[in-house]
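Hi W.,

Here's what went into the run:
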Amino acid sequence: QVQLQQRGAGVLKPSETLSLTCVVSGGSFSGYYWSWIRQTPGKGLEWIGHINHGGTTYYNPSLESRATISIDTFQRQFSLIMSSVAAADTAIYYCARGRVLVLGTYIDSWGQGSLVTVSS
Amino acid sequence: EILLTQSPATLSVSPGETATLSCRASQTIRNNLAWYQQKPGQAPSLLIYHASTRATGVTAKFSGTGSGTEFTLTISSLQSEDVAVYYCQQYNNWPPYTFGQGTKLEIK
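Here's what came out:
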């Protein structure tokens, strides 16, 4: 049974950098897409991007210029860094696991969520 | 970017009855659609993938149908534990993966 435990959250000031880490326990670390998804009352669920075991990343074009996802297969964890945050980045951020399919992925496991608030 | 439109926004159903939730895609996504359930204060959880395949551990009261642009999630024998927001997600055309705005299911 896979478990995804998120670290990092809290309050940031505009223009600061967001940093979140997700530690994966149980299950295989390869053969999946490791994703970051955020949720706001206004925009709902928004996919940020994902990375595979080999380090290949894909991003939402709307966030690609500010988001970086990295992976540490030895530590079984992956991370999200988002630069130049603004109030619109206030959200609950989820890490998640997606099945690798011929086409894309759906999410079969989610982290507990981390509230990130951007406020001056 | 594929737009997913869910309807209705809120659905109120009596206990024991059946709820029917809709998800419409702005262009064909074949059967590359998943449904999630999100209970208050929790992360979403997978119910259905490939439009009609139940995820591991999901009861048969949840069923998904559809292909192309029109999809339905049906929840039978409604109970209080089914109160949640239900989301659809497409994985046919990406990036980005996109989600519907959700249907909030209430019990009368």
